[in-house]
Amino acid sequence: MGKVNGVLTCPDCGYNESFGRSSYTTTSTGTTADTGESSRARYQSSNTGQGSTASGAASAQNLRPYEQYLNQQQYNASTPSFAEITAQRRERYGDERPKSNSKILIICAALLIVFLTILIPLVMRFFTASANRYHTASKEDTDNRRAGGYTADDNAYDDTQPIQETAAITVPQSEFFAQMMCFIFEKDSSALTADDSEQLVSLRIYEAGYDYMAVDYVLSDGTGGTVYPASQKCDMSEDLTCFVNLEELYLEEAFYGNLNLDGLDKLHTLYYDGYISDIENAVNPSQLTELGLYDVKFSISDLSAFTNVERLYIDCGMLSDVSGILDLPNLKHLTIEDGDYIDDLSALYQATQLESLSIESNSLRDVSFLTKFDNLKELTIVGSKVLDFNPLAACTGLEKLYLLKNYETADYEFVKDLTGLREFGLMTSFDFDDSDMPDLSALSNVTKLYLGNFESFGNLKYMTNVEELTIDDGGYGDFGSTNALLSLPNLRSLSVINSSVSPEMIQQISEAEGLEYLDFYSSYLWSGIHPIINMPNLEELHLDYTSFMIDPDSIAANERLRLLDMNNSQIYKYSTDQWSDREDIDVEALQSALANLHGMEELMLEDLTINSVEFAAQMKNLKLLNITDNYVTSLAPLKELEKLQAVVCESNPISDTAGLDAIMIK
Q1: Residue 268: CA count within 13 A, CB half-sphere
Q2: What radius of gyration, in Å, describes the C-alpha atoms of the chain?
Q3: Are residues 604 and 537 in the same domain?
Q4: pLDDT (0 to 100) of residue 334
Q5: Is 276 in contact with 302 (CB distance < 8 Å)?
Q6: Residue 655 burial (C-beta neighbours within 10 Å; 0-12, 13-18, 19+)
Q7: What is the CATH number of the domain that holds 591?
Q8: Could you give the CA distance from residue 150 to residue 254 in angstroms, rounded to a whole number?
Q9: Residue of 215, 234, 569, 612 with fewest CB within 10 Å of its CB?
Q10: Same domain, 553 and 592
Q11: Could you give the number of structural domains in the chain?
């Protein structure tokens, strides 16, 4: 017995004086004043001595030890001690101290675990069964519609009402596809016919630059192009069914909704961002020979229905294994992108029938298994942890080889033995002590070449058949004093990206008159771009996210250049001193220079402080103009451009739309 914070407390019985302080206040005369309602106040003493000692002893047996102790202290000081009273009471009634709640908590936790262990599998089983029933019913409904029959729901209709079949559409009904067709065939939507719809054999629908939708198309006569519907809502529910001769369909975004491909019996290539079950419900899986799957989650174990697929593209997402490829007996070409979550490649080791393999995965650590791929002609390996590529020397049948960003090794000497290569790409880790282009003189048959993290390219002079050249992260690039670039007479396409481009490099590029395509994406140019713009055969020039100087007065009238991308570039006044501080170009001077590009079809000028589109008034072939994030107030100069399909104009203070609202994307 003791006091805690001035309160009398008993550690044995658990009594605390604060439970009923007013009931146990003993007066100086030995009486107890019962001024509270505590249930513990079961005794009272009177200074008149009412009640006998015997009755007090009898009633004491109903009292707690501390209560007995107090009672006896009042009447008989020689009674047993408090400890003895406590021991006697425990012997008679057991331990009356408050019990711990820990056992109760343990029991409750155990019951909860058992409950969840039983409930969660039941819930998962329920939803899985529901999903399976839905897909089964949907597939049966699709099969019935293909067979011209009816589903069980069809039979539930009132027998007194005649069954009306929905007529198959022959021209698109949605605004997006109607605009697409109008642009392709250059006619009003009211003039579109079934014959027009039947000419389409290939469609690729995608988002260009994360800003607007675009459509690449191919017609039955082999012609094709790109159009830009101003409507940004693709309705896949019915419109695709009118393209009955469609053979290839690429749907690269995830917001298309329901996919209806009824009647597209010639379709053999499908790329889709959705569930495999959606594809099975939309088209007969056995008719597909090429399948592309975007953002695949966890598994591709349900490919068994696609028995005729020869080409498979997988954008892996969270994919952990590729065992599903073993269900494709005719698979010859496999592409695996973004496969860093794959932890089991054993199925790949067994796919010895492959003719082409492209894999991006840091799970790949060895390539010796490829020596068993007798039919392998094309190989791309990106971002692996392979230590030794020398086993590839035995793959003498290779015609295409790309080894990019495999930074665990720097030994590529084996390449000189692969003399049959037509395409070759090599990107290694940058080494300031040895950043020269490797000796590839034995690869004289290469027509497409990709080089990354090299700074000197003098050895290009040995590769005279190159038609397409990409230089990625080229440092302060230099083609050498031998004018190596000019020794490539067949060069038509050049990309110098993520690089610092020297004046000498720019000079050689401007003299390569056969160039039709140039890309300087995210590069820093140490000289003016105007000699490049004036190149006689150049058709496409990409300067997005590029820093360069320009002399507007040196831009000549140009009918050849049809695409110019300057999105988010840094443009400065021209100076002959490359080391001088750069000044931003005057926007009026830039707009004046752009006005000379009369042959322009696609012009991208995002975030360049443009304040007028007067420069585009004479671009009679202009189809697409992107002026996002500028200061344009009027579109009036564009109203006479009959071929204009879309004006991307978000974040502009436009007050005069000049009646072009229907083609504005904002």
Answers
A1: 8
A2: 41
A3: yes
A4: 98
A5: yes
A6: exposed
A7: 3.80.10.10
A8: 30
A9: 612
A10: yes
A11: 3
- Among 511, 575, 514, 568, residue whose Cα is nearest residue 543: 568
**DSSP code at position 245:** T
Answer yes or no: are the C-beta atoms of 629 and 604 closer than 8 Å: no
Q: What are phi and psi of 508, to 5 degrees?
A: -65, -40
Residue 20, judged by CB atoms within 10 A of its CB (0-12, 13-18, 19+), counts as middle
Q: In the predicted model, is pLDDT for residue 94 greater than 60? A: no
What does the block give as tokens for 362? 């840091």
9 & 125 share domain: no
Strand partners, 402: 380, 425
- Kindly report which listed range (135-139, 443-447, 499-503, 509-513) carries the lowest average pLDDT score: 135-139
The CA distances from residue 368 to 364, 379, 410, in Å, are: 11, 13, 17
Kindly give the residue spans of alpha helices, DSSP state H, lying in 81-101. 82-93
- Give which of 549, 655, 536, 545 is closest to 604, Cα–Cα: 545
Do 44 and 79 have their domain in common? Answer: yes
- Nearest CA to 239 out of 262, 215, 206 is that of 262
433/435 Cα distance (integer angstroms): 6
**Residue 587 DSSP label:** H
525 & 633 share domain: yes
pTM here is: 0.74
What the block records as the tokens of 444 is 């004289």
Q: For Cα atoms 32, 35, 37, give the angle at the middle one, nearest 5 degrees.
A: 110
For 627-661, what is each residue's pLDDT tens digit? Answer: 999 999 999 999 999 999 999 999 999 999 999 99
Domain that holds residue 618: 516-666
CA gap 193, 169 in Å, rounded: 11
Lowest mean per-residue pLDDT among 292-306, 521-535, 593-607, 647-661:
292-306
- Please report the pLDDT score of residue 149 as a whole number: 36
What sign results for the dihedral spanned by CA atoms 216, 218, 219, 223? Answer: positive
The answer to whether position 116 is within a domain reads yes
Looking at the structure, tell me whether residues 129 and 44 fall in a common domain: no
- Both structure tokens of 241: 């069914």
Q: Per-residue DSSP letters for 485-548? A: GGG-TT--EEEEESSEE-HHHHHHHHH-TT--EEE-TT-EEEEESHHHHT-TT--EEE-TT-EE
572 - beta bridge partners?
549, 584
Residues 22 and 114 in one domain: no
- Give the span between the Cα atoms of 499 and 471, in whole angstroms: 8
Q: How many CB atoms lie within 10 A of CB 494?
A: 21
Please classify residue 293 by burial: count the beta carbons closer than 10 Å to its beta carbon, then call 0-12 exposed, 13-18 middle and 19+ buried: buried
Residue 592 and residue 656 in one domain: yes
Contact 386, 409 (CB under 8 A): yes
CA count, 13 A, side-chain hemisphere, 219? 12
Per-residue pLDDT reduced to its tens digit, 227-261: 999 887 776 668 899 999 999 999 986 556 678 89
On whether the CB atoms of residues 402 and 428 are closer than 8 A, the answer is no
Asked if the structure places residue 600 within a domain, the reply is yes
Partners of residue 401 on adjacent β-strands: 379, 424
| Alpha carbons within 13 A on the beta-carbon side of 276 | 18
